[in-house]
Fold this sequence. Notes:
Blueprint: H1 13-26, H2 46-51, H3 57-60, E1 64-67, H4 74-82, E2 86-90, E3 99-102, H5 110-117, H6 119-124, E4 126-129, E5 139-142, E6 146-147, E7 153-154, H7 160-170, E8 179-183, E9 206-208, E10 213-215, H8 233-238, H9 240-251, H10 267-272, H11 275-278, H12 296-312, H13 315-320, E11 336-339, E12 344-348, E13 368-373, H14 381-390, E14 397-401, E15 406-411, H15 414-424, E16 428-429, E17 432-433, E18 435-438, H16 440-443, H17 469-477
Parallel strand pairs: 1-2, 1-5, 5-8, 8-9
Antiparallel strand pairs: 2-3, 3-4, 6-7, 9-10, 11-12, 12-14, 13-15, 13-18, 14-15, 16-17
Helix pairs in contact: 4-5
Amino acid sequence: MESVIKINPGATKWDIRQKIWDYIEEKNLANFPRPVHNRIPNFKGANQACNRLTELPEFKSSQTVKVNPDRPQQQARIVTLEARKTLLVPTPRLRSGLFNKITPPPGANKEQLRVCASAQGVKDFSVPVDLDSKVKVDLVVVGSVAVSEKGLRIGKGEGFADMEYGMMASMGAVNESTVVVTVVHDCQVVDISEDLMGSHDLTVDYILTPTRVIKTDCQVPKPQGIIWIKLDAEKLEKIPILKKLRALEEKAGKDVTLGAAPAAAEPAVQASQPKRQTRRRPRQNAQQDAGGESRQEPQQERRAETEQKARQRPARERKESRGDGKGANEGEGRKTVRDKSKGNSREQAPQEGGGEAASQQKLPVSVTTVYLGGIPAGLRVSELKTALREREVVPLRLTWHGAQRRAFLDYSDPQGADQALEALQGLSLNGQSLQAELAKSQRGARKPGPSHKRPRPPTAPKSKDAPADSQSDAAEKTEE
């Protein structure tokens, strides 16, 4: 099948990533979180692609499956748990260990398994699996930014999937017979030159898309362990589990020599150059090592992508990030604005995706708003957000009116709002049913179609002095 995205000869990994991210955004092929740049894209149709996992004979015969923690692979985690297999999920960005083994409650039903497969469930229903654990992984599921029909894979550039596989190989959890599967949108299947691949790059045996299953018959070997010369001391400091593995391999007599950190420019040179030049993406180094691999990977490319991420973020966020050094890892990506006169608050939706870096995004010019009423007294906004995540209807922004027992959910388009309305029907929290419908300001512009409105519970007659509904509704939304 011919690729819809044409890759120019001589394109670098970064060029390919950028072209795919741009295409997915331009064609509106992604779900929340957006934009997809610098992420494993949460593409539309991800659930259908993940469901194809059950068709693979290697999945049917497997006992232990490792699935990455990103949002587009959530359905793969769900079907793994539903098949009563052991599910391993890497610790996001390998911050606190290697794996989490998901342990659902005894006799868990499908809804409980869905919770266990979510980002929050990985935190609440798991036990750590360390390097010295005797575990054998039969099947590995990873995300990708790009992949070729020959099995060559490109991630988002930080190398976590490659390192996870290398560590599994070092601990004996995987071998040459372990099957690797990736789940992507059809547009992410492109032509990739084998010259771009290094010995540290993970290849795949199957590609699952919303429309097909591709068996790659890839002949390029997978990593047999961590290639230490491709890492530097800075990377090691950020990932404690790597330091532990290096100590173990050094004790066993293996060569664990690290590579040099990217050389910084001389201060005098930096001072004489305009700032824009210091943020320019470096081109691929023509010098290659004896194995024919570019020395840009992974050090120079990592630095280029860090600079690109800085350019992607809004200027206001870049300014705030220079404060105390705390960032997305501490949950700082969430922005809260409070209305002092009412005690209400508006929160930009938290970003999921496990290891994906949180980045603040601007709301679209036009949004579709869903009204959520009948919220039980005493319910916390965190409990509502958990319920929204479980039903996969996380909004672009949530406006919380807890005292008035209501909330407003903003979605980027009417289709997203319709999906939310359908998913929220029958939602009950703390024994009380919630009421979901389009906000009053949206109803006049709604196209003909099935109504998701539920009858409001009877209320006491309004006094003559009470403001009209339309006025009240407008007042609630003034903070936007």
